[in-house]
Each structure stands twice: as C-alpha cells, then as structure tokens.
Amino acid sequence: MDSMADTVMTLLVARQRNDTQCTVDTCNVSESAYNYRPSLTANAIFLALFSFSLACYTVQGFWHRHAWGFSIAMVCGVVIFGRDISRVSPGAYTRLFIPCDIFSLVLQGTGGGMASVASQNNKDPKNGDNIMIAGLSTQVFTMALFIALAAEYGWRVHKRLRGQGSAGLDPTHAKLRNSTAFKGFLVALSLATVCIFTRCVFRVAELAGGWRGTLMKNQRLFIGLEGVMVIVAALALIAFHPGLCFKAGYEADGEKGRSGEDSVE
C-alpha cells in the first residue's frame, strides 16, 4: 500500500514541475515509472529478435497452412503416443487450456489499462494492479496444471515403453515418433513452456511487490526473466515448428486417405 502511495506522490510531483518536458537532464531517473533508465542496447536487440520472430511465424504459418495454430501440437502430442495412455482426451487439452489462457490475458490487459488510466489521473492504480496479478496468477496456475498433466503423461508413456516396448504405442505414427524433428519439437516445447512459466512467476512476484518494489527496480532481472525467457521460447518453436516437425504425420495421414480411396474404387 505504501509503495502505491509513493508512486502516486511521485507522479503528482512530476506533474507539478514547471518543465514542459521531463528529460534525463531535468528529472531524476528515480522519478520515472521504472526507477531506472531502460537499456537502449537491450531493447534494440529485443526489437530485432521479436521482429525476426514475427516474420518467421508469419511465413511458417502460410507455408504450413495445416499447422496454423499450435493447438494442433497439443492434440497430436497425445494422439501420436496413444490416446489410451492419457488421463485427458486430446481435444480436452485445447478446450480447457486455450480458454483459460485467453481469460488470463484478458484480465492482464484489463488490469493494465485500469492501472494506466488511474496513474494518468493521479489516482491509486491498486485495483488495476490486483486484476493484473489475478490474470498472471491464473496463467501460472493453468500452466502448472498443464505441466503436471504433461509430465504425468510422459511418465505413463515411459512405463508403457518399459513394459511393452514400442509395440505398446500407437503404430500409426511410429515413423513420426522416431524422427529427429519430432524429438526436437518435444525438447523445444518443453523449453518454451518452462521459459514462459518462469516469466509468469517472475511477473507475479514483481507486481506483488508494487511499482516501487525491489524487483520492479531491477532492470537486469527484468531483461533476464522477462525478455530473454520470451524470446528463447519464441526462437525454440521457430526452429522446431510443428508444421515441419509433424510432416511425417501429415504424410502418413495422406497415405491413409489415398489407400482408403483406392479401396473404395
């Protein structure tokens, strides 16, 4: 509560200045929203990397049109090893986790907007901050649940392999399961999930400490646990895009379709 009051007082002082424009020469950096001067070098690097990521995802989306949207990876990951092994049906993953993610993003956006408007009107942004924290906490909870279910499914697959060998898994996608690209995708997806989960946990702790809290003032932690985590996740899934890594599965499905048509003829 005290940190929020300090933020409001700082904004009031800044507004009462006679300076027409606050610059690094006329204002102390401690009076800024971040309490530090953002690194131009770090932000330039992130801008370049995120622009590159956007271009890559756009091209890959149009190039692999059947893989537009990563929900296919969530469903196919269960189907490829065997539906009967999973406690949750393949379709339930998308029906459960995607709406939860959208809901958490809506809360974060709404809270951020409310906090921004409150600060601009010299009011306490606490309500907006709490909504943002609720959104991030929801995301952390759903991601933790997803990680737990995925880990449990992986353990059940491991047990099936130890007990029955590859014969215990769905033989339809044996070629895909054994491909280097698919194994790389599993590693990339795991890495991306851990990175985004780490980022969300950090953001909850950061916002919980207030806008004048210790974590909010630490640019190095922000760069490392926010920007780096997100770009690593993005680049990992560019290198192992499901449109490329699931290619063997699409080809197998196409061959099944053609053989079915031949049998009808």
Largest sheet: none
How many individual β-strands? 0
Structural class: mainly alpha
Low-confidence stretches: 1-19, 253-265
DSSP summary: helix tally: 10
User: What's the mean pLDDT score?
Assistant: 78
β content, as a range?
A: under 5%
N- and C-termini, Cα separation: 75 Å
Helix content: over 70%
In N-to-C order, the SSE pattern is HHHHHHHHHH
Please give the radius of gyration in angstroms. Answer: 24 Å
Identify the overall geometry. Answer: elongated
Overview of the molecule:
It is a single chain. The chain is 74% helix and 0% strand. With 265 residues, the chain is mainly α. Helix 7 runs antiparallel to helix 8.
Characteristics of this structure?
265 residues, mainly alpha, disordered N terminus, disordered C terminus
